[in-house]
Amino acid sequence: MSETKTYLEIRNLHASTEDTPILKGVDLTIAQGETHALMGPNGSGKSTLANVIMGHPAYEVTDGEILFRGQNLLELEPEERARLGVFLAFQYPVAIPGVSVAKFLKSAHDATHGDNKLKPAEFLKELRENIKYLEVDDSFINRYLNDGFSGGEKKRMEILQMLTLKPRFAVMDETDSGLDIDALQVVAKGVNKLAGADFGLLVITHYERILRYIHPDHLHVLIDGKIVHSGGSDLVKKLEEKGYDWVRQEFGEEVLVG
Amino acid sequence: MTEVAMEKPVDTLPGFDEAHFAAVLAQGESAVLTAKREEAFKDYVNIASPTRTDEEWRRTDPSLFPIADMKRLPNLPQVESLPESPWDAEFDVVIAVQADGFAIMHRNGTAAELGISVLSLAEAAEQKPELVNEYLQGRALPANSGKYEAFNDAFWNFGLFIHIPEKVEWEKGMLIRYQMDVNDSMLIPRMVVVAGPQSRAVIAEHLESPDTVRFMAVPQRELYVAEGANFKLVSLQEWGLNSYQITNDWGLVERDANLNWFTLNFGTARSKMKFGSDVAGPGSAADMDGLFFASGEQHMDQRTLQIHSSPDTYSRLLYKGAVKDTGRSVYQGLIIARPGAIRVDAYQTNNNLVLNEGARADSIPGLLIDADDLKCSHGSTLGNLDPEQLFYLRSRGMSEHDARQALIMGFFEEVVDRIPQKFIQDIVHKNIEEKMEK
């Protein structure tokens, strides 16, 4: 911790929606270049944490702070967070009929790369490369964003957006849910392309399977709005071997759900 | 019991009485047209003026239209030519209509080579009675027309007759552009289009007036789409914000024919518009696409009718609208399946974006079914932009303003995408952008 630079720091985060407290004091620190995994039962607050990091207006932060490279994200609009390099791969990406993938990605790229906008031709070249890399069909870019996309296509679209926008820090909210092995490998490919010293990642998941493709440095277990257990590679290994059922048994999730 | 002859009271719109009508006739035209006007005038005085108690006018008070202030333009004279406009090059024929006259301009010999008639109604009645008379006698409109249909029939001051002969495929088609700029004037255009059997054609209309000009239009369009024909009409209405409009438009679609009709409405202070199609022959189809955006203090009222008077017919309607500021829109739709109209597919969708409090959209879909064995659906939505969609776009770096714009533009895209002319798509985009910014 003292050797590596702190990238994202969440301190005593409390958040609620419609007056129901969901996060009840989350502490989490991610150093530059690290990948963290966050696991926990349904209803534990995983998605709420992801949405609060991005600034979803439906959640109210009642206490605590989120610092990203020293800046308090909670003071910023969602688009300002995106421009700092924060990215959220949504669990359930919404469809936006009438807005084509290509047009949307160009607008998003322009918005997040204020001083380094690409010319349309350069942008398209890069986009085509990413599409090829992610083994996505070429016709994708002319379709309306997520409109009529299958679950797997939507997840690939999220990863394509991540590759296009090149964020500094990304939260992947159950991107692996509902994906077959092929699609999961594509997701891993995308993540591994961005991985490096300038990238931090928080992978929220329900299944140990993804940990075989994306190797986190740290793993946290979130239950009832609090991180109850954190560990390094030992914990990751244990989870890979014993599976998520072990977490269930260890932390008696059925008692805590709800 | 003795029968008492009850004389109906004469009901005329303010300023449009018998004396005015006599003056219209005194302008002189062919006997056929005069006879038609006289017949129409009799209907006109016998049909009661609409009031707010009529269901059709319940949400749009007829007194909102300042008919008394509007002076009917004399029958528009035909002139040789009028100045060009940037879009003319896209078409073979351009008709320019202004308050002081109109010009029918052939940009090349295509229409003549194909035997297409593009004539004023006066010309048509004199030169091509064998073609036009049939359509002056019958009507694409249903028998029990209303006050304004009869008014238009009696008082029209600009008439057009377009005839596309059998099997003719008219690739580029024509543009009719209206540019009106005379205060307190009334334009009453009447257009009859006949797409002959197995013909294919597209007509675009562009209606404009400056925002500063107070003006009223009472147009009527009759479209006859003959057996196996494929006809498209794209009507882009950008009348100025100080103008008024009451329209009655009808399309009659014969066996195996196809009508695709776009009504794109951005202008006027107040408008009341009726668009009806009758898929009247087996195997015929009507696609009706509409787009409207009422901002500022605009009030737009649209009524659509999808009549199925034959079996094995199809109609699809999609009207998408937005209201903003204190803008107000009314959509009333009706699908009518006549007795015997079996194996019918009829779809009606009206989606509305209400962009702020104070703006209002009313959506009243309806079905009137006298047949069985048919597939029919109607639906409408009403609401502001979806917060999840907004958050999604903002999370990718787009400002709230840009995200809203993208969503509004996207909302309309389903209709815009179908418009056959790229330049009209561009004008529509520009109109939507301007409305969003104001």
Summary, kept brief:
The complex is a heterodimer of chains A (258) and B (438). By secondary structure, chain A is an alpha/beta fold. Chain A has helices at 46-54, 78-84, 101-112, 120-133, 151-165, 181-194, 233-242, 244-251, 253-256, and strands spanning 6-17, 20-31, 35-39, 60-68, 71-72, 86-89, 96-100, 144-145, 169-173, 200-205, 218-223, 226-231.
Features:
heterodimer, A: 258 residues, Rossmann fold, six-stranded mixed β-sheet, four-stranded antiparallel β-sheet, 12 strands, globular, B: 438 residues, alpha/beta, 3 domains, 13-stranded mixed β-sheet, 23 strands, 38% strand
List the helices and strands and how they pair.
The complex is a heterodimer of chains A (258) and B (438).
Chain A: E1 6-17, E2 20-31, E3 35-39, H1 46-54, E4 60-68, E5 71-72, H2 78-84, E6 86-89, E7 96-100, H3 101-112, H4 120-133, E8 144-145, H5 151-165, E9 169-173, H6 181-194, E10 200-205, E11 218-223, E12 226-231, H7 233-242, H8 244-251, H9 253-256
Parallel strand pairs in A: 3-10, 3-11, 6-9, 9-10
Antiparallel strand pairs in A: 1-2, 1-4, 4-5, 7-8, 11-12
Helix pairs in contact in A: 5-6
Chain B: H1 18-26, H2 31-46, E1 71-72, E2 93-98, E3 101-106, H3 110-114, E4 117-120, H4 121-127, H5 129-137, H6 147-155, E5 158-164, E6 174-179, E7 185-187, E8 189-195, E9 200-208, E10 215-217, E11 220-225, E12 230-238, E13 243-253, E14 258-265, E15 270-279, E16 285-294, E17 299-308, E18 314-323, E19 328-337, E20 344-354, E21 360-364, E22 367-369, E23 374-383, H7 387-394, H8 400-416, H9 422-437
Q: Give the averaged pLDDT of chain B, no decimals.
A: 94
Report the strand count of chain A: 12
CATH class of chain A: Alpha Beta
The quaternary state of the protein chains shown equals heterodimer
User: Do you know the CATH architecture of chain A?
Assistant: 3-Layer(aba) Sandwich
Instruction: Note the total helix count of chain B.
Output: 9
Helix percentage of chain A: 25-40%
Shape of chain B: globular
Please give the count of helices of chain A.
Answer: 9
Q: What's the helical proportion of residues of chain B?
A: 10-25%
Domain count of chain B: the total is 3
* Rg of chain A, Cα atoms, Å: 18 Å
